[in-house]
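hey m, so remember when u said the tokens were messed up on ur end? i reran from scratch. heres the input so u can diff it against urs
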Amino acid sequence: MSFTVLATLDLISAFVAAGFEHSVANMYFISLGLLIKTDSAFLTTIGKSAADYVSLTWANFLLVNLLPVTLGNLIGGVVLVGLTYWFIYLRPESAPVPLSPRTASTPHAPTHAEVEADGQQDWSTLSSEVTSPESTPKTR
């Protein structure tokens, strides 16, 4: 099994164990139930009959369960993931907080504007500041 399958299996299992419905998990579990419903040997082993599961049909599964659960998963995923990314990366920058005289001399992390301005710097001037190996004193 690949790592992706194993990671997804744990996440979906935790989601289902918490009582939520997940469309992919439902595709497996309810389809399995629909197939087991036709196995009379299994049903006799557990003391049930196909008549006990009359409402468990492919039509009910697709229309009553899978469609609403899939729509809920899509809306929940898009909203939660979208809001999380917006909050982390795209929200507007807040106004800078004025420094008090006590903290005015302490260094601060560069703002987004300072980092972008630094990227526009002309780096060709730096070559004159670098010393060549010939101009450095040799030590023995």
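this time it looks ok to me. The mean pLDDT is 78. if urs says something different then somethings off w ur setup not the seq
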